[in-house]
Amino acid sequence: MENLKMISKHLKFIAVLLGFFILNGCYTLSGSSILPEWQTIRISNFPNYAPQYQNPNLSQDFTNELQDIFNNRTKLSLTTEENADLLIDGEITGYQQTSVAIQANEVAGKNRLTMSVRVRYQNNQDESKSFDRSFSAYEDFESNLTLQQAEGALLDSILEQLTTQIFNAIAMDW
Fold first, then answer.
1. Closest C-alpha to 115, from 130, 98, 102
2. pTM metric for this prediction
């Protein structure tokens, strides 16, 4: 009787473990348009051509964030070679503060920081996937703060939103 309980316990453990490996082996990134045979990606520096407020670190911060998302979420290797499987370049086209949530006394209740980028994506393996498109993201902040005071807290979120939008457009065909 004791042996039967022990065998039953081991069989349950093996079944759970086997189920885990089967499900794990079946998982794929549904809808992914980055094929396993593609190996390299070149992400060029995005210069800041925004005519409004100039953040001296914005170009490098955005480029690093974009490289990080592809480096962390794909098996593609970053390269500086022109003949990479995938090429991404572009520029920061907008970085501006606007007033939103205007109150009854015509004073802004909140301000909004909006960042826009133009992305040129060239897929050297499947030209039909290539595009030239603009993306933008924003965050609101209290009107009693200056842009310089609020920028640090807002920028991480804006960069994450933008790089996720770009990643999804390229890797997920969204």
1. 98
2. 0.78
